[in-house]
Amino acid sequence: MGSDDSYNFVFKVVLIGESGVGKSNLLSRFTKNEFNHDSRTTIGVEFSTRTVQLDNYTIKAQIWDTAGLERYRAITSAYYRGAVGALLVYDISKHLTYESAERWLKELYDHADPHIVVMLVGNKRDLDTLRTVPMEEAKDFAEKKGLMYMETSALDSTNVEAAFNEVLTAIHTKVASREVTRGSISAVTLSNPIGPTSEAQEGRGGCCKSA
Amino acid sequence: MDDEVTVSDPSRYRESRRKRKSADIAQALGASPVDVAALRRMAISEGGLLTDEIRCRVWPRLLNVPLQVLDQEPETVERENNKDYNQVLLDVQRSLRRFPPGMPDEQREGLQEELIDIILRVLKRNSQLHYYQGYHDIVVTFLLVLGERLATALVEKLSTHHLRDFMDPTMDNTKHILNYLMPIIERVNPEVHDFMQQAEVGTVFALSWLITWFGHVLSDFRHVVRLYDFFLACHPLMPIYFAAVIVLYREEEVLECECDMAMVHHMLSQIPQDLPYETLISRAGDLFVQFPPSELAKEAASHDSMATSTFKDFDLASTQQRPDSVLRRRRRQRQAALESAAASSVVTVARPSAARRFVRLAVMGLTVALGAAALAVVNSALEWAPKLDLFP
Fold it and tell me: Annotated Gene Ontology MF terms (chain A) (predicted)?
């Protein structure tokens, strides 16, 4: 998929949060402009991509969707590796899904790059009448933790585009200020330029073919 | 695929074979005692158990569930204060696609309620079992074929046997079973194996295949139940052999893929819907005979990627039901004899000739059945031992 288009960078972004908060639909809304009322349970991990333009760069966003159920975390957390962005999603009508945000954050920082760009996302904004998580409360929490924050609705499309674009822009800004050149390929990470870097990679890279 | 038999009128030929098989199944069911070994062979061989009507009669036999459960009123389960209810509800509500298209909403909603009840009932009665997402994909298959009462009984049996490892508090055993995938692939096609290793793709793409017996990923219900025929008649590790066979079948696609974790993962997790199921089932059986779990476990134990070396095939069986050690030893001796016999007739895996496959399928039916017997899916291994002597 997408192997024919050209791009300057690949940004790996992960979608995390409790089961049923709408991660898969946020992803399909962003990458395919689709919403599925019968979105299947996500078992394991899967990803979709979308290419966006930021400044004069073509960015390929590779967005990984993960299973929300606790028992799957041992498997999904391995996929946080190399992520430069994350959307931590909760359901504004289910307070429990918000309460676990702190746990998810810890999980993320335990396995991902410490400089990862994280946005706290209150999804299902269309269910405002059933709201149990006040916007101010979530906003304060996000601020305290140094996270970006937005409320979205994958159902009616509100802010979905905006949320992803803000995250991608923030990553881009970080990347642009820390670019390093090594050998013949130019590779970028958010952390210090040591060790192998593949997180945000310029151009197409393949380890076996055409490398 | 290459299963087709060339005769003047293939459809008539198929129809007559179907009729014959149907009669054979009826005969095995009518025998006293019921010829479970024959039923197992039928479930594995081409076409499986043919119809849901036949499945209603044979599946309980394969798991040794008495039909008297049909007379029992299923117990009601408290939903309030049930630790699993919310998650089960969430997953069942999202399982619309598993019901036949065109089914009236009211009927579907009734079945969804039954689905929730079955799951909660089995979990409540077996506190050692833990719900996992995907379990509902298994249970819905049984519900649609068997109805609530039989489904409850079969799912309970399955959950304490074939699915037991998936229902641990953690995914450790599930991950361990996934670790069988690469050694199988390596034996058959080192090139594909090396490519996947280099891409660092891992095995998570096969997770949902394994723990739902492909129910989560195949859209045609007929394909799902055909696979269930096969898996119910076989060793609990057979689904991982089938997963390997799918990867191997897609050899060209794999090797043409960009050698990148994401790309290979994505390609492999999109399962083709038009797989040649009968051919793949037969290949999976062949691989099981050639590279039995015990052999792979040994090899894997010396391998770094295996987290633990303590895994034994028998751990898959429930802790309560195990054949005694004498029977186990006898089984191993038989299996060893069979495997050496099989090895001489099995030369290549990828492109078997029709004649050779015929031989191998016969061997496979026997060996696979032995695998199942060892796991005591039937009440006791004793019940199996004399029947095995009846094989040609």
Answer: GTP binding; GTPase activity
